[in-house]
Amino acid sequence: MSDDFDETSEPDLTADEEALLKELPTLTDVGQARRKFIGQSIAGGLGIFALTLLEQEKVLAALAISPDAMFAPAVGVENSVKVVLKINGATKSLELDSRMVLLDALRERLELTGSKKGCDHGQCGACTVIVDGRRVLSCLTLAATCEGKEVTTIEGLAQGDNLHPMQAAFIKNDGFQCGYCTPGQICSAVAMLTEAKNGEASYVTADVRQTPRSVALTDDEIRERMSGNICRCGAYPNIIKAIQEVHSGKQAAQSWSFHKAESNLADAINDVLTKEATSDATV
User: How is residue 208 annotated by DSSP?
Assistant: First the structure.
């Protein structure tokens, strides 16, 4: 080996050193092999763990219950009271906790899940049902207080396959998006029309001193009277249209239609725009 060392030149190796260098793997190969080994080890460990759990479940499932086994007694209803409710025309006798609200009784005991639990604080109106013709917030109404009263939920408005006019109007005017608040909106609107027919005033009623008579519902009246029912999707304009249609009895032109596969989409859009323009011209 020369005594003069040049940094740019490769070091001189003996024949044995060159042979040994060729047998060593490259650094890249070492890294790849290490990562592959770790990955395979983790996968294998997870597989063994899953198989062990499955075997344990099979063994436990095959075990018979000992005749001497003791179980905790079923918890009965606390503060129970017997309540007879008239729900959508049918009489229902229930044994309830005296603290159970009407909404929970409808949903959990009678499986009438149309009424929705939104805020559970009486602020959103999604739980609205009709009790003896008046709209109430069922999440704040004790079920025991409805003894013997007529309770109407969204399920009881339709007559068989015939929708209630308010239900049909909501569909026709597209008065909803997600639909979560819609049962409460419809029940509230139905009872609200009865209130207006009976001459009950609201905050925006012009003359509250007049002899009680049917109140003509303007858009402002509807907004005020329905202000307790929140629509998080913001479908308020179409909700007002639906209620006005039922209140006035005037059938508005439907501004939407189902698209047929064989029809041209552009023609369908033009038809809708034409109907809207015709409807606006006749108002």
Answer: S
Neighbouring residues of 115: CB distance < 8 A, sequence distance ≥ 6: 103, 106, 107, 126, 127, 128, 129, 138, 153, 154, 183, 184, 187
- 3-class SS at 117? coil
Radius of gyration of the chain (CA): 36
Query: Letter for the amino acid at 251?
Result: Q
Judge contact between 222 and 153, C-beta under 8 A.
Answer: no
The DSSP code for 108 is I
User: Measuring CA to CA, which residue among 144, 173, 176, 17 is closest to residue 154?
Assistant: 176
Query: What is the reported pTM?
Result: 0.66
| Burial readout 203-230 (b: 16 or more C-beta within 10 A, e: otherwise) | eebeeeeeeeeebebeeebbeebbebbb
Q: Mind listing the domains of the chain with CATH numbers?
A: 76-156 (3.10.20.30), 158-252 (1.10.150.120)
Burial 93-105 (b: 16+ CB within 10 A, else e): ebebbeebbbbbb
Q: What are the tens digits of pLDDT across the range 88-100?
A: 999 999 999 999 9
Residues 26-37: tens digit of each pLDDT: 555 555 677 778
